[in-house]
Design a protein that fits this description.
It is globular and about 45 Å long. It is mainly α. The chain contains five helices and no strands.
């Protein structure tokens, strides 16, 4: 395998602004609660989405994950 390519975007800032970074780190290190996965849907959803809209989730935040 070759070298790991550098990531040029600041993806961690989106996770920090949504207060997901600490919870995600705790969950991945097995220190968090299993309920984290069930509550993950709410912060990833867009606020005030009109009915029938095809965009329900914050895609840039999902890509940061």
């Amino acid at each position: 395998m070759g070298p790991i390519p550098p990531i040029l975007s600041d993806f961690a800032s989106r996770l920090k602004s949504a207060d997901l970074r600490n919870n995600l780190d705790q969950y991945l290190l097995n220190c968090g609660t299993p309920s984290f996965l069930t509550t993950l849907k709410n912060p990833l959803s867009l606020p005030d989405v009109p009915e029938g809209s095809s965009e329900l989730y914050n895609l840039s935040l999902i890509n940061s994950l």
